[in-house]
TrEMBL record:
<dbReference type="InterPro" id="IPR038718">
    <property type="entry name" value="SNF2-like_sf"/>
</dbReference>
<dbReference type="InterPro" id="IPR027417">
    <property type="entry name" value="P-loop_NTPase"/>
</dbReference>
<feature type="domain" description="Helicase ATP-binding">
    <location>
        <begin position="288"/>
        <end position="461"/>
    </location>
</feature>
<dbReference type="InterPro" id="IPR000330">
    <property type="entry name" value="SNF2_N"/>
</dbReference>
<dbReference type="GO" id="GO:0005524">
    <property type="term" value="F:ATP binding"/>
</dbReference>
<keyword id="KW-0067">ATP-binding</keyword>
<dbReference type="InterPro" id="IPR014001">
    <property type="entry name" value="Helicase_ATP-bd"/>
</dbReference>
<dbReference type="GO" id="GO:0005634">
    <property type="term" value="C:nucleus"/>
</dbReference>
<protein>
    <submittedName>
        <fullName>DNA repair and recombination protein RAD26</fullName>
    </submittedName>
</protein>
<dbReference type="GO" id="GO:0015616">
    <property type="term" value="F:DNA translocase activity"/>
</dbReference>
<dbReference type="Pfam" id="PF00176">
    <property type="entry name" value="SNF2-rel_dom"/>
</dbReference>
<feature type="compositionally biased region" description="Basic and acidic residues">
    <location>
        <begin position="14"/>
        <end position="23"/>
    </location>
</feature>
<dbReference type="Pfam" id="PF00271">
    <property type="entry name" value="Helicase_C"/>
</dbReference>
<dbReference type="GO" id="GO:0016787">
    <property type="term" value="F:hydrolase activity"/>
</dbReference>
<dbReference type="InterPro" id="IPR049730">
    <property type="entry name" value="SNF2/RAD54-like_C"/>
</dbReference>
<feature type="region of interest" description="Disordered">
    <location>
        <begin position="1"/>
        <end position="59"/>
    </location>
</feature>
<feature type="region of interest" description="Disordered">
    <location>
        <begin position="146"/>
        <end position="184"/>
    </location>
</feature>
Amino acid sequence: MIRKAFKPPTFVRPDAKSDEPPQKKRRVSSSVNERLPLVPLPNAAIPTSTPNAPPENPNERYYSVLWRKYTTKKNKTWDGDGVLAVVNGYATLTNSDDGKELGKSVCNRPLLPGSALSMGGKEVEIEDFITKENFMAGRHFLGKAASRPVANPNPAPMKFKPLPPAAPGKSKSGAGEGQDNKAPVKTLEERAKAADNEDDIIVLSSKPVAAIKEFKTPLLPSTVVPKTKSSKPQPRHDPAAPNALVMKRPSSCPKGKQIVDVVVDPILTKHLREHQRDGVQFLYECIMGMRCEGEGAIMADEMGLGKTLQTITLLWTLMKQNPIDGNSPVVTKALIVCPAGLIGNWQREIRKWLGNERIGVFVVDSKDRKNKKITNFTMGKAYNVMIVGYEMLRVVQDELKKGSGVDIVIADEGHRLKTANNKAMLAIQSLNTERRIILSGTPLQNDLGEFYTAIDFVNPGLLGKRAAFKREFENPIVRSRQPNASESEIEKGEARWKELVSLTGQFMIRRTAEVLAKYLPPKTEHIVFCKPTVAQATAYRNVLASPIFAVALGNTDMALPLINVLKKLCNSPSLLRSTKDGDNTPSEMLQSLLPLVPQNILASHAASAKLRVLDSLIHKIRTTTKEKIVIVSNYTTTLDMIQQLLVSLSYKYLRLDGSTPAAKRQSLVEKFNRTDQKEAFAFLLSAKSGGVGLNLIGASRIVLFDIDWNPATDLQAMARIHRDGQKLPCKIYRLLVQGALDEKIYQRQVMKMGLANAVVDNKASASTFSREELKDLFRLNEQEQPQTHDLLNCTCEGHGIPHVDDIPDVLDEAEDDEGNAYPSLKKASEVDVDEQETKLKRHRDKLRDGEQPKLRMLMEYAHIDVNFLREVTEHGDESEELEMAMKVDDDVLLDVVKEKDCRVSFLLTKRSS
């Protein structure tokens, strides 16, 4: 084979000379563009508030770490993240995932990022420093999204270019669209001449003017801005119109798209009050992901603030608009889940605000479930909103997954989603809908565990895992609220509480009924303590003396039915004969307790102190006023007893309880509201069946005959009359049997409400009672004044709310050098040493036991001893009598308590203007 000789390659150009080096490339930069020398900048000092800063206190150091179990593998990996706290020479390792303590050991050497140590059978490597503030707040135990800074709750006002002003005599909502406008319609030529810029010029048509008149809708007036040829994005409604509600603009926009203003339909805007406008904006920002990582929200407004209207406004805005110009609306299909009794209410509210022609509503209930196909909602275009009950949702959840799916879920009365295993919650989560809203006037009813479930439902993962939340937030917060909490526990609990409030404030909005003060008439709330009758007290003592109660102190399951027995005794001993209310009281237990109550007491309702007070109250209202009354109870047998009383007095009434068909409930409410006192004087209402969603503004007085463990149940019932449309001042009466179980339940209600206001509660139900608490429940306190007033450490002696200057011989506010209160300075001859020592001891004991802070909310009430009120009336002191009458603020109740045989012993009164 003949091969060619190898020829080495050459990189020299043919014209280049081998003996000359190649020419250098010419520099083309001018002196003007010469590179300037680098400017040296000193490194900024590390601020002490950053996570990388070294700890300020050498005795308290906190680190973020990596940890793993001991292993002999060659390629080792870390098992997880953790937090290392070194306090006073002792190091504690905690897992960031679930908050579980992994190990504890002595650590006296300084640690820096990269340092390694071993403890509790784990290898640990230091990642970074953690400030004490961040450790106390517990941010490293929350989800990753929660560790981000809180969004600015008061964003800068939105900027937009106002539309050109409308022509004189023409409405801003468009030419001739249902507006009563007498101005002549301009021709297209005239409109073209009046255009502000070239983009707005309209292409002229060769058709005659008579043939090109603008279309006039035959249905409703429209507020939609007419389309133009402008290249600028045009909002659906005019953002420059008076009272326009413009939503916040997103911070970013997809490439090739433009941002357009989202403006709420003026048809709804004109009905929104100021707090409702704020609520719609808040919900919109949450749903659009502008406030936190999630797309959920909790609206925790109190009853009567218009949560339904705000939700309807949000849905209508999302169904018609999108902040990104040219994109389809944000929401196409919406699902509203609510208690079965509120389905009709939601349907009526949507029809009230939007009419029948704007939006299609698909209602699913148990009656016509077989006649309706869910595919009409999921596949069709006629329906945009579906309303379904919590129970029915579990039946139709598989069908809802078909089609394009659901874009947003509204959970009304969302506090029902109490546990993560709740079937209704699992059904909603199976829809894979990220946008979720909970509507609840009481989002925290029992404990922080339920509150965590609600938050994790609307924004999954924001608070981390349940185990870590319980260890690092729930337990420290609850422990810090105990009377015997140490300073370190209080500091840690308060820091965790503030962090939780700050975090939840990003997506939860809460307004109280105070915002309605300028829209509604005043209301007065009376806590009426009724002294039990002799027969009632005898029956109560006999039942408590039964051996069954002694056994129940060590058996919580047995204590619950016995508590139901005591609740019946408070209402009336005669109710022990009935088991109609479906409680779990065993027949054997009743058989053993009934012989302890005299038969004459069981045969008559006359032994009930509360029924006697109610008899006097309704008689005074019926004969001296033209007002009507609502009477609420948790038990149907109690309603039966009250019904018999009304029949005996020949007073006409209406009744709504669990046996009332859902189709007839609204008609009963409307009948009561539109008729006068002679046609329907009283409305008997079951708290369990009609406690929510009813508007009973036909009455201006309401009586809560018995009390519930859950304060939310009573608050919802009380809100039935003090709502939009009420014209008269409202009076609320809550009847309690003094010294009995009623008073003990009320004390726990006050503690729950006070702690719930601080986002904490440790009294979930009767099943959490200790032995000492059960002893306190199973006791009849027969002292002269209610125990509730004694627990307040109040010095008013039943004369009203005290003032410091008016308190004689009471401990002064001064303190000695050690911070202890001491008696006020007086002449030696005027000082009763024994009395002062007794008051000082009682004052310190109550503060130490934590009794005063628990019921501090009751210091907002006027404390009135009825015996003192009667003495003032008998002595004829007009000035004192007038002063007490002003504190009671109820002429009807004042006449009742002045009666000779009245069973009312004490009043707590609060007036809200």
